[in-house]
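Chapter review. Work through the record for PNPLA domain-containing protein before attempting the end-of-chapter questions.
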Amino acid sequence: MLKLSILLLCAASMGAIAAPPQNQPDVAVRPKVALVLSGGGARGGAHIGVLKALEELRVPVDIVVGTSAGAIVGAAYASGMPLADIEREMQSLSTASLFHDVDRRSLSVARKTDDEGSYVGPEFGIDANGISLPMGAVSGVALEAVLRRLTARQASENFDRLPIPFRAIATDAASGEMVVLAQGNLALAVRASMAIPAVLTPVEIDGRLLVDGGLSRNLPVDVARALGADIIIAVNIGTPLLKREEIKSVLSMSNQMTRMLTASNVRHSLAELS
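Structure tokens for PNPLA domain-containing protein:
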């Protein structure tokens, strides 16, 4: 009986120690922060400035979602590339990169001479069905080389397993629906996200022909919400509509149509922000 009494007393004492005080406050849980980076062509470098400011202020980033130019910077950052390296690589990504499929440094002198008389434009061919037309002015080979360098740190095809979970936004050319890319090759996903119609050849992923994500969701706030974001830092660098005197060619007219579609869905996304 004495031993039993001692055991019961020890058990009661241990229970009292283990039981938390009734008035102990709950441990605060940090809200999940998502960074949403829009498309905006040459303005994409502005995203790097935003990331620098966030790092200086020690603002944590738990999710990155990007469209077009935002996908370029977002993918590189989410994969773990330092901002200084991203900035250096982005400096080589110019408009010229979009209109040349081969890095001239890799060409022979004879090929460089031949190219001096060439012009920017799509190549045509003839097959069994007649004249074959390309779906873009250039295929984007040189551009993809830059994107591979920017995403060289990718270690997993699952974008959730990157240092920061990431999503790239593209548009299905057949249905016009938004496509959220969450796995695969980062460089290819980014190229799909920025495949400007009539300029860059669309990218085929999982049987879908993908073009610029800005057409369906240039500021994908809803995608970040679906990933569980509590706080969203949305960076809109969308380009304004061209003025009447700036619309002078088929290319500029196509560009204007793209900007109109982009501006429309951006207004919808901004309305979703609290």
